[in-house]
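Protein modeling request. Please complete all fields; requests missing the sequence field cannot be processed.
Requester role: graduate student
Desired output: 3D structure, token encoding
Chains: 1
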Amino acid sequence: MTRRPVLHPCLLLLALGALSLWGGGCSSPERLGSNAAKPYLWESLPHHPQLAWHRHRADSAALYVRIPAFEPLHLREGANAPFQFSMDIELLVEPTEWPNAQDGEPPATMLHRFRWKEKADPDRTELVQRFVFPMPIGRYRIVHTVRDRNRGSDVTGVTLFDGWGQDAPVRNLAVNLDTGEPVWEHTIPAGANGAWLIPADRMALALDHDHLHPVDSFPSAPFLDRAKVPFLFPDSTRAERPRRISGTPSGLPQGDWSGWGVMEWKANAGTHRWTPQGENRPWIVAARRPHFPMMRDVDELVRATRYIATRQEYKTMRDARDPKRALDDFWLGLSEGPQGARQLISTYYGRVRDANVHFSSMKEGWCTDRGMVYILFGHADRIRRDRAGETWIYGEEGDVNALVFRFTAVDRGDNFNAHELERYPGFRSPWEAMVSTWRRGKVRKR
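Delivered output (446 residues):
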């Protein structure tokens, strides 16, 4: 009997290891990217900053920036000088709405530049800094650039900042008390101790706190127009109120919190929603596994194969006594030996990670409509964005043979960053062809 090749016990980990260099969180409405036509090419970016915005006063705002400590290039000016990094943070703040707009000229567009320079510290894994800039009441479009001066590289993105009224969501700041940092991009590790920082003029707030357990469902294929199951929070079980901060509390981010209130909570896995009584604008935080956006547990690695595994293959892996061995056998069956399996694993789970970074909402990004298409087809050749959603174009734009997916933005206050694919029966043929390409191990990175 011919013996099948067996993956080395660490093959899956080795293939996934190259994917673990960055541990970002859930995506914001508009992500960082250097190429407007290809905004989701995460691996091609020279560095991967995360941003948290906060209107801490009526006339100013703060930006928190976090970046992996190994990413900025550290140089020294002489043989006896310390190694250090040097970053520039540039904010182009353009007003889009402002008070009394009909009475006069619009406020001027503002450009703010900050220098971030520190000595190398081998004990630090993350670099975090806070920058404060003036911002009158209004709504803004902010083009933000994070530039590595030593490397000569930069990453640019766009954020829509709503700092209009008393209930503007950016006035409150979600924080991780275990790390002393803001909650990055709506996401906190499950099991962490979280809190909301609430300004002094909102201390009388009562908030209904709801918790939705992790949503565990797959999207239907692009050619199947099935009814979507709505995500429903259970009825609120209690109302919560902030308490005033006293003394010098630990676990809070940089900033002056005198007079502010704090409301602590436990980040049980799932999506947390707080709705101020008398208001209809919820505050949302997702608590996800600590290693998110990566996949490391065998069970979740198996689940992610659902797009390309047959029903029987998927059932076999789920029911196996040794699911790790069954998963290895699955990938070996799609490739020509261990080396091909490594490459296929790296490409597939790399796209899963990217989907989690960019497309997560109440569901993890890999099991959303955009995540499904991204994992199977890779990054589109061109992406167009507008207020209503996104159009992904594979092939030459305007070519009759181009494959075009349209995603409509879902305006549901609870389900941030959600887009739904406009399904079409004609997608069956390209979908099945792409699945077949994966199953023959012929997929290339794009």
